[in-house]
Amino acid sequence: MVSLAATTAMPFPPGDRPQMSLKRDSSYTDAGEDEPRSSQSKKLKVAFDPDVEVRVMDDWNEKPMNLIRMEVKNAIDMHLAGDSSAYDQLKQVFTVRPTDGDAPSTTQLRKYIAALMGNVRLLTKRCSSLVNAVLDCSWLGRDEAFLGHYLRFLGSLASAHGGYVEEVLKRLVAYFTDLPASTGHLPNQPVVRRSQLLARVHTTLKYLLRLIPSASARLSNVLPSKFPFPTDTTKAHISYVENLLKLIQYVPELKSEVLALITERLVKIDVQIQVDMDDLEEEMGDKIVQDMQQKPIRNLEDSEASDDSDN
After folding, report:
1. Is 306 exposed, middle or buried (0-12, 13-18, 19+ CB in 10 A)?
2. Where is this region: Disordered (predicted)?
3. Cα–Cα 20 to 30 A to 27, which of 48, 95, 130, 132?
């Protein structure tokens, strides 16, 4: 019988000596018998240098720009070839409400705007639904970086396709009266006051009118069509007139037309008010007569009292 001491003392050729030990934690971890400590020690060699600055990327899960460029280009090409599945998905990027959970971030949306600007020559009338989706997106209340990209996109679009100029102007002029407070309160964006929103509208108009000289003639056709109706609120009329007066400060060639438009519409409102007052007086008179006719005249005194009341 060979003792344990004799066994451990037996010589072995170099490299063939077994790595045996009676201590359990010298070769295996405490977690189990399946993982050697050598593998654990290799894992523990990975360490962070405390002197290295570690920063978390804000948009780590955002699509890279080159991928978005390919996505936009392929969607437009497929749409022009007859397959609009990817094209419809691209439109949803701009039509989704900013408050929805799947809404793209401002950074992501800015990349799509840049990708569209790189393919602006493809945005013909066959892509008008996509262009309208971009024009109707929530752009006015976003940060300055996005605003700059969007403004350049509008300039490129209007320069490459003159047919879109009037559509762009209509949407900008519509902000003269229709500008809800929610426009400047977008998720994860700084609050933008209404005065700032209107200033951005006029900045965009000024940029387009200087970039495309013929746009002022288109604008003269848009302004009357967007003027509030006589039945609209007083606030809407005041807001529109105030913005028209700001407009002619940087578009002096439209000054006479704008002032004539304001005068014409105010005269119409005054005439309509007079007609409404006459109608109201007539209705009140008819109602008094009807009320008197419905009252039974019991005697002469009642009749005389009725005459006095009518007088």
Report:
1. middle
2. 1-43, 287-311
3. 48
